[in-house]
Every structure is written in C-alpha cells, then in structure tokens.
TrEMBL record:
Keywords: ATP-binding, Cell membrane, Hydrolase, Membrane, Nucleotide-binding, Protease, Thiol protease, Transmembrane, Transmembrane helix, Transport
GO CC annotations, alphabetized: plasma membrane
Taxonomic lineage from the root: Bacteria, Bacillati, Bacillota, Clostridia, Lachnospirales
Native source organism of the sequence: Gallintestinimicrobium propionicum
Membrane-traversing stretches: 12-33, 53-69, 131-147, 153-172, 236-261
Subcellular location(s) of the protein: Cell membrane
Name of the protein: ABC transporter ATP-binding protein/permease
C-alpha cells in the first residue's frame, strides 16, 4: 500500500481540499431537501417563513457554484494520481535489478503499467476518495433527515441494505474471474502489437504477420466477450437495485393507507432522501466490486514495483576512485546452471584500450555487464582503482562511464538533442565531432542540419548512421571509462576502421573496453583478450595474437571473409 500513501502524501493539499469540498456539496444538497420539505409544508399551512426561502435559495445557488468549482480539483487530482503511478514505474526501472529487468517483455510491461496506473487511480480516486467525500456524508445526512421525518422508513432502508450486500457478494465471485481473464488477454494482445510494430522487417520476411494477426483476433474475441459479460452483470445489479428503490417509494406513497401520518412535504422529501440514502449504497457496492476487480490489475502492477532493486545503486560509498585501473581475478558467473564466465583474470591500466573477441555467446558481453555492475559476480573479484566493485555506489560510478551498445541508444528528437541533450554546445564543436564519426557530410546535406528530427528510435537513419550518432555522444561525456559493446557492428569496414582510429586517438588518455565486431577495427588497441566457451584462452597485442593463438587466427580468417559476426 506504500504507493497509495506516497501518492496521497505528494498531493496532500489537493486531496484535503477535494475531500472537504465534496462533503460541503453533499451537505448543501441534502439540507436543501429538508428546507424544501419545510417550505412546502409551510405553503400548505399558509405560514411561509421568508428566512427559510432565502436560506434555501442561497444553498441552491451555492451548490451550483461549488459543483462548477469542484471540476478543477477533480480533473487535476485524477490526472495527477494516474501520472504519479506511471512515474513510480519509471522510478522502479531506474533501480530494478538488471536480471529481473531482462525477464520483462516490453509490450507486456507497458500494458501492465497502463492497467496498473488506471487501477491505482480508480481505487484511490473512484473508491477511497469517493467514499469519504460523497457516499458516507450523503448516507449519514440522508438517514438523519429521514429519521427526523419517520424512523420506520429508516428501518425499511436498513433491510434493503442487507439485500444489497448479499447480491454484491454473489456478483463479486462472478466478476473476479472474468476480469482477470480480460487483463491477461489485454497484456498478451499488447505484447503481440508491440512485437509486430518493433519487428516489422523480421516478421514480414518470415511471413509471421498472419499468425500474429490470427492470435490477436482470438485475444480480441476473448477481451470483447469478457468486457461484455462485465457490463451485463453490472447492469443486472443496477436493474435489481432500481426495482428495490421503486418498492420503497411505493411504500412511502401508500403510507396514508398504512396509517402513517405524513404531510405532502414529508412525502416529497422522503422520495428524494430515499434516493440519496440508497444511491450511496448502490454506488458503494458497484465501486467496491470495481475496486476488487481493479485490484487484480493493481496487484500485477504492484508485483512489478516489488521486484528486487539493485541496492548497489544507492549504497553508502565513501570511496574515492583515484584511477580507473581494472583488476579482475578468478571471475565466475553462471546463469541457469550454465557457466557463462569461468575463472577469468584481466588487468587493464588507466589509459589503455583493450578489446574482447570471441564467438557469439562466449561470454564477452557478460564480462562487460559484470564490470558495469549490472550483473553480480558469484566468485572472484573486480576492482576499480583498487576498490572492490561491490563496495562502490553504482550511480556515482556511472558518472564517469560511457556505454554504447550495438542497439544504438537513439531517441525521438533532433540530431542535436541526441548528441548533447539539452546542453548548450556550439554548432562548430558538434560538427568537429560529427567529422570524427564520419557524419558531418551527411548532416550538412540535410535542410535542417543539426535540428533535423530523426523519428522514434532514429527510424530516419540507417543502422550505421544510428551507431555513429550514438558514438558522437561519447565525445561530449566527461568519462574516464568508455565501453563500446559492438558499437560499430552495422558499419562498413572502411567507415568502422576510420572511426575506431579516431576514437583511439581522441581518447588516448581514457580507459577503453571494446567488444569487436570485426577484428580489423582493433589492430591498434593495446591488448586483446580472446574468450571461448566462458574461458579466457589467450591475450596479447594484435600481432602477438596472430602469432601464437590458433583461435584468434580462426576468428581473424572468419572476420576477413565476413562470416564472423
């Protein structure tokens, strides 16, 4: 429940004003009914009190004004609560344990967050707040004024309450399983949609769209059928409830035949107050059912929020890294009982450029993720500047790291924004860097130049252009450790070699860790580590590796023939 309390605490002033305003509105509406009854009876008795008419008129006008004013906190609070739950999800991604993050599917998690944020807002806003500001006050004020007229009507209403609660429990059992099935199908449907949008080329070439569409149609049928069931069960409740209110009103209208002495004003007031006494119960039962159903979605969202965090991101760290020497001893890491990194020793001095080579799945990227602290090593040691990595505050550590993967972390925005974000950097300085990554000529050819929009995930650029744009960003970082994880894999040989040479010259005083896609791009690095089947099997300069390592020779031959990926 901490998320609910966090949201309430963040919006405490707005919540309080919203609740108080609701109570005042309900009081004005209920008290005006009582005043109307007294005025009606006084007219019948020809003893009209002008003071009561003025008070009634004032309450009537005040109610209209307050209902108008109420739109502001209602809209503002509803929107803020919904968005606050989404922001909490972003905060969770910021600290989530990397292994848990890897298990999440993008489409599924986006739908889960969407459903969970809606559910959280509805539980808090449509259930909790509504009960406090509207239902309880309306119920209490109505019963009070009904009791003032005839307490027997109040007893009849209580009997009706019991019937309503019995019906509610029956409905809840029917609705719970239907709602859960709808949510699961919605998450699966969104996952299919996201996958189709993100993997257009692969799905088109392998003719997967027909199968995906068929599965989406099946899920659509289940979702529509389930939502239709939910609506019909709800409407059945409202119909039964309307019949119950109608019976009570008939009893009131027949009061004279039952020997009850009620005035015209009292009958009119009772007919209105019965609605006000029963409606909160009807609404409560409906929103209670909705709340229980929304809890299914919210619990799935809460399970996501409760996933383990990486405590190293925020841990206390008084260490000061004097240099960026990397010392790795006996490093081991396994996943699903498979040894991914096995007893590896590596030493990298500040200012050195080293490369990791090996076949796909050999363990290269895992070593990088271990050095970054994303994955936690089970045995061995990683020291940065002589300090054990597990003792470092990772958020502080990351301020001195640049990391570029082969996936090219490009976002929807301009070329300028993708390179320097919102920093004020001169155009000529940006152009100098674009020249180093072989993009200057292309950008200069664009009508909008640096202010050209590149679309979501850089869809206006080729794979190689996206990688070059991502690399340009590194030149404006104040990083001591630069990690390139196959960051040039989509480039042609000549472009890759030229850019890598520029990077090695420009960052000659920084520590570079490079996972190479093609080996001709790492001829000038200080040292190469060859990884095979989770083991370090050779190390040395490029020339030394060609001379003494058969495995490296095989990789080199494969790379030259473009078979090595």
């Amino acid at each position: 429940m901490s998320s609910f309390f966090d949201v309430i605490k963040k919006n405490a002033g707005l919540v309080m004003s919203y609740l108080l305003l609701g109570i005042v509105i309900v009081f004005c509406e209920t008290f005006s009914v009582n005043l109307f009854q007294r005025i009606l009876d006084s007219i019948t008795l020809k003893s009209v009190d002008i003071g009561e008419i003025i008070l009634y008129s004032t309450l009537l006008i005040l109610g209209y004004i307050l209902n108008y004013v109420d739109n502001y906190p209602t809209t503002k609070l509803s929107s803020k609560i919904y968005l606050d739950f989404k922001i909490n999800a972003i905060r969770k991604i910021r600290t989530i344990d990397y292994k848990e993050y890897q298990k999440l599917g993008t489409g599924k998690i986006l739908q889960l967050i969407e459903n969970g944020s809606n559910a959280g807002r509805n539980i808090l806003f449509e259930y909790g707040f509504r009960i406090i500001r509207e239902l309880i006050p309306s119920l209490m004020f109505s019963l009070f004024f009904i009791a003032q007229i005839d307490i027997r009507i109040m007893y009849i209403i209580f009997v009706g309450y019991i019937l309503v609660f019995i019906v509610t429990n029956i409905l809840l059992k029917c609705l719970y399983s239907v709602k859960k099935e709808v949510l699961i199908n919605e998450e699966g449907f969104n996952r299919k949609l996201t996958r189709g949008f993100m993997e257009l080329v692969v799905f088109r070439i392998y003719r997967r769209f027909e199968n995906e569409i068929k599965q989406c149609v099946n899920m659509e049928d289940n979702i529509v059928r389930g939502k239709s069931k939910l609506v019909m069960i709800h409407e059945a409740f409202f119909t039964a409830f309307a019949v119950l209110i109608g019976i009570v009103k008939i009893i009131i209208l027949c009061a004279q035949f039952l020997g009850w002495n009620l005035s015209v004003g009292e009958i009119v007031a009772l007919l209105t107050l019965v609605d006000k006494a029963y409606t909160p119960i009807a609404i409560f039962n409906v929103i209670y059912i909705e709340k229980k159903l929304e809890q299914i979605a919210y619990e799935r969202y809460k399970e996501f929020l409760d996933l383990p965090n990486d405590t190293a991101l925020e841990q206390v760290d008084n260490n000061k890294i004097e240099n960026y020497n990397i010392e790795i001893k006996g490093l081991c890491y396994s996943y699903n009982k498979r040894q991914v990194v096995n007893n590896i020793d590596i030493n990298v001095k500040t200012g050195e450029a080293v490369a990791f080579v090996g076949e796909s799945g050999s363990g290269k990227s895992t070593i990088i993720k271990l050095i970054l602290g994303l994955l936690k090593y089970q045995n061995g040691s990683i020291k940065i500047g002589g300090i054990e990595l597990s003792k470092l505050n990772l958020n502080k550590f990351y301020t001195k790291i640049s990391y570029i993967s082969q996936d090219s972390p490009i976002f929807d925005g301009t070329i300028r924004e993708n390179i320097v974000f919102d920093r004020k950097i001169k155009d000529e300085d940006i152009m100098k860097v674009l020249d180093l990554v072989e993009l200057k000529e292309y950008v200069c050819s664009l009508p909008e130049g640096l202010d050209t929009e590149i679309g979501e995930k850089g869809q206006m650029l080729s794979g190689g252009e996206k990688q070059r744009l991502a690399l340009a960003r590194v030149f404006f970082d104040e990083s001591e450790l630069i990690i390139l994880d196959e960051a040039t894999s989509a480039m042609d040989n000549l472009t890759e070699s030229a850019i890598m040479n520029n990077i090695l010259k420009y960052f000659s005083n920084r520590t570079l860790l490079i996972i190479a896609h093609r080996l001709n791009s790492i001829e000038k690095v200080d040292r190469i580590y060859a990884i095979k089947d989770a083991n370090l099997i050779a190390e040395g300069t490029f020339a030394e590796m060609l001379d003494k390592s058969e495995y490296f020779k095989q990789l080199w031959t494969a790379s030259q023939s473009e078979d090595y990926k």
